[in-house]
Amino acid sequence: MLSTGEYFQGRSLNQKTNFNLVLFKNHMLKKFIITLSAIAVLVVGLGAVKVAQIKEMSSQSHERPVTSVTTAEARAESWQPVINSIATLAPVQGVTISADADGALVKVLVENGAAVRAGDLLMEIDSTVESAQLRAAEAQLALALLNSKRAAELMGKDTISQSELDQTTAQLNQAEANVAALKATIEKKTVRAPFDGRIGIRSVNLGQYVSRGQALVPLQKLDTLYVNFNIPQRLLPLLSIGQKVGVKIDAFNGTAFDATITAINSEVDSATRNISVQATLANPEEKLRPGMFAQVEVGLAAGEPQIVLPATSIAYAPYGNSVFIVEKMKGKDGVEYLGARQQFIKTGATKGDLIAIESGVKPGEQVVSSGVFKLRSNMPVQVNNTVLPANNPAPKPANT
């Protein structure tokens, strides 16, 4: 074999250049093949890793995620059903005292908010003219009385005729009527309390001219009040005279006042199909005032026991309300797990934070009480009752 030097001996420069070019191309081709092989090995390696990851994720996707929830035991309770309604307090006796005659207000004898008795003098309207006319009428009456006595004596002596006696008697009667009319006019200008009660804030001031019929001051009897409310006609058979009513007013932080039904209207409102009911409420300390807004609860006879759950257990939906019952389940692979089964229900009355379930739940079943919005039927769950939602039949939320 010839060496490179021997091979190039006796050859031209071009032949030498072509030979070197062939050697360079062979060298580059080898490098390219090596590089391509390395890239192929790298791609295959990365693909194998990715396939392993996908297989791992696929195996994990078959495992259901576990959701943490709280539970409450469904229990049977006997609730006393109630009728709820909105009411307004009204006075048993209450008026706005008005002027019965024209004139200037010359005396105000009572302070705003004072307690008064029936017949107490409250105000006086100027009656000086009527008083002067009364004195003149009383003088005429005295003269008519003397003339009548004198005529009666003369008649006994047959000195005057019967017609003259009749005339003096008529004059006496007319004088008496004039005096009575003026006294009545003066009395109309004297404003008195028609019953025991408490004065409100007067709407007139001393010296003001008042007209007949003008409002002067309100007067309310506050020791007893009416509670007026309406109920649907279908509930009428459940009410009776003497039935107890609980009255709550927000001004007293929901304190319940006891009242008794004393009247039920004799007709039903044809527009609303409601009937008016009136209860009487004792108010000896005068805490309550007419016109107050109130909420009433009429207690009825206790009904059958019913299933009770926290209101937070209900999943409300247009197609029906439901709850999730926690129980042991088996997956497709036969492995047992703790899951939540969706159960459609029919809800009933509410009481505070509780709600009655008319159908769909049995006593003793464990029902999800919080976290229902993130559940689906047959999902695995983990019960954590460290912190429970409100479950009070008579809650007292903070006044914010």
Please characterize this protein's 3D structure.
Strand 18 and strand 19 (354-359) form a beta hairpin. Helix 3 (128-156) runs antiparallel to helix 4 (162-188). This protein is of the alpha+beta class. The longest helix is centred in the first third of the chain and has 49 residues, at 13-61. The relative contact order is 0.16. It has four domains: 4-61; 67-79 and 304-383, conserved putative lor/sdh protein from methanococcus maripaludis s2 fold (Beta Barrel); 96-209, Helix hairpin bin (Helix Hairpins, Orthogonal Bundle); 220-299, Efflux pump adaptor protein, beta barrel domain (Elongation Factor Tu (Ef-tu), domain 3), CATH 2.40.30. The termini are far apart. It is elongated, with a radius of gyration of 51 Å. The chain has four helices and 21 strands.
What are the SSEs and their pairings?
Blueprint: H1 4-8, H2 13-61, E1 67-73, E2 75-77, E3 82-98, E4 103-108, E5 115-116, E6 121-125, H3 128-156, H4 162-188, E7 190-192, E8 197-199, E9 209-210, E10 215-232, E11 244-248, E12 256-268, E13 274-282, E14 293-299, E15 306-310, E16 322-330, E17 336-344, E18 346-351, E19 354-359, E20 366-370, E21 379-383
Parallel strand pairs: 1-21
Antiparallel strand pairs: 1-20, 2-15, 3-10, 3-14, 4-6, 4-9, 5-8, 6-7, 8-10, 10-13, 11-12, 11-14, 12-13, 15-19, 16-17, 17-21, 18-19
Helix pairs in contact: 3-4
